[in-house]
Amino acid sequence: MKKALVQSLSCAMLAAPASIAVAGPSGSEENWMRSAWNTAVDHVSTTWRDGDIELYVPLYTWHLPFAYRQELLDSYTEYPGGIGLGKGRYNQNGNWEGMYAMGFRDSHGDPSFMLGYGWVPTWELGQSQVKVGVGLTGFLMSRSDYFGGIPFPGVLPVASVSYKNLALQAAYVPGGQNNGNVFFIWGKWTFN
């Protein structure tokens, strides 16, 4: 079931741009696509050039108990281990943007790899240097139990709480019964 769902979503994500290209963009759509592409390239290149180096440490994988049979919960790896590196920055609006590469153990204990870009609007709590935020990450991921390890795209919501250089971040993987419904939690240290 979960493989079929992921395959369907991946095919839909890959087919959508192709269907737009076949139909042919109108002038305003072409300008919008060009503008969106140029903005994305600008954000990524600015983050690469001006961002600080960041260390990612996967900490915990929480499978929501209501969504899984107990024998599955008992068999899953909760401590993913692993490590990641990235570059991140706070942009002119005070929002965090960053690119990253992480490797860790998936729920079955097998190697999993992801490469992505995150954007998290943040708000500082008073004068405390504590920032909270909620945003998105887009990524390519490789897992042995999906597509035989062939990388697939994804987009997930991300939440962040940070104090100075240290952040605790989490992504939510939606799902159904006995798949998805997972919080993936990691720590992030920014070297600056």
From TrEMBL:
Looking up InterPro entries in the UniProt record yields: LipidA_acyl_PagP, OMP/PagP_B-barrel
Pfam family of the protein (one)? PagP
Signal peptide residue numbers: 1-23
Which domain of life does this protein belong to? Bacteria
Give the main location: membrane
Cellular component aspect of the GO annotation: cell outer membrane
Name of the featured protein? Phospholipid:lipid A palmitoyltransferase
What organism does the record attribute this protein to? Orrella marina
